[in-house]
């Protein structure tokens, strides 16, 4: 049977929720998924890399999280990959620039699983995957992590922010808790929009247990990791 991410990859524009981008951009705008905290973690983690950076952003959306996270870097090149043409169109109007505005920006409407598999070895200083890998099946996550490791320089950094399950928490338990959070907190959305978001998470979101995520990154070849932010739904790690 076709998985949700296969269905999205075979449809023009990816997952329905991300096709016109307006609804998701309002979720980001209200910081309901803690994009401010996540992008601050990205900025802090990258502050030590004071060299021209080549950055790959897998599932970049409209690039706003990365734009904020990369704002103090010496950004040499930024590549954003996403299935959503609408998101990429918005990104092109206001791309990540880093400290100056000289970065070469490339956007690709593509399946991140394919883009990751095609990463040239040792090409990137930074790979970002913000709230995108949870759409993949476990084995696809493992393969993508291995491709990311191969695409990074040995002193490069991978930043993974995502939804996650606590030890022993089931997928259903996680989704029900996120649903309660959405219904309780995301109240500026219309009822129809809330239903659309809830239906999206039950169809398309496959968070892993936090221990699994760290073990899978280690199995992909990352030897060190740091935990930068977490609340009951969202987590940010860096690996190198
Ligand atoms: C929750 S949004 C996150 C967007 C952005 N990174 C952020 O943090 O705001 C998930 C993004 O991943 C993209 N996406 C999901 N599966 C994908 C795939 N297989 N290939 C490329 N993009 C994908 C979606 O189109 C969407 O833009």
Structural description of this entry:
The chain is α/β, with parallel strands linked by helices. The protein has a single domain (4-164, 208-239), classed as Vaccinia Virus protein VP39 (Rossmann fold, 3-Layer(aba) Sandwich). The protein is 42% helix and 21% strand. A seven-stranded mixed beta sheet has the order 3-2-1-4-5-7-6. The model has no long low-confidence stretch (mean pLDDT 96). The structure holds S-adenosylmethionine (SAM). Residues 5, 8-9, 14-15, 18, 28, 59-61, 65, 81-84, 87, 111-113, 130-132, 135 line the site of S-adenosylmethionine (SAM).
Low-confidence segments: none
The CATH class, by name, is Alpha Beta
Helix content: 40-55%
Radius of gyration: 17 Å
Mean pLDDT: 96
CATH architecture: 3-Layer(aba) Sandwich
SS-based class: alpha/beta
Gap between N and C termini: 35 Å
Q: What does the overall shape look like? A: globular
Helix-strand string? HHHEHEHEHEHEHHHEE
Strand portion, in percent?
A: 15-25%
Give the total of beta strands: 7
Count, helices = 10
What can be said about the biggest beta sheet? 7 strands, mixed
Q: Ligands in the structure?
A: S-adenosylmethionine
Taken together, the total number of domains comes to 1
CATH topology: Rossmann fold
CATH superfamily: Vaccinia Virus protein VP39
Name the strands of the widest sheet in spatial order: 3-2-1-4-5-7-6
Task: List key phrases describing it.
single chain; 240 residues; alpha/beta; Rossmann fold; binds S-adenosylmethionine
């Amino acid at each position: 049977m076709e998985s949700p991410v296969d269905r999205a990859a075979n449809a023009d524009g990816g997952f329905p929720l991300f096709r016109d981008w307006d609804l998701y951009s309002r979720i980001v705008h209200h910081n309901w998924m803690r994009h401010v905290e996540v992008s601050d973690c990205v900025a802090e983690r990258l502050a030590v890399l004071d060299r021209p950076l080549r950055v790959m952003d897998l599932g970049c959306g409209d690039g706003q999280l990365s734009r904020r996270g990369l704002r103090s870097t010496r950004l040499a090149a930024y590549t954003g990959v996403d299935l959503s043409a609408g998101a990429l169109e918005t990104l092109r109007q206001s791309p990540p620039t880093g400290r100056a505005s000289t970065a070469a920006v490339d956007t690709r409407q593509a399946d991140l699983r394919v883009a990751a598999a095609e990463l040239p070895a040792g090409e990137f200083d930074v790979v970002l995957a913000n709230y995108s890998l949870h759409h993949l099946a476990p084995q696809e996550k493992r393969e993508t992590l291995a491709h990311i490791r191969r695409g990074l320089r040995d002193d490069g950094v991978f930043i993974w922010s995502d939804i996650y399950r606590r030890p022993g928490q089931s997928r259903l338990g996680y989704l029900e808790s996120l649903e309660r959070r959405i219904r309780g907190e995301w109240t500026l959305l219309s009822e129809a929009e809330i239903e659309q978001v809830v239906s999206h998470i039950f169809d398309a979101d496959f968070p892993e247990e936090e221990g699994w995520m760290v073990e899978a990154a280690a199995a992909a070849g990352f030897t060190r990791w740091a935990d930068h932010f977490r609340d009951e739904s969202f987590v940010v790690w860096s690996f190198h």
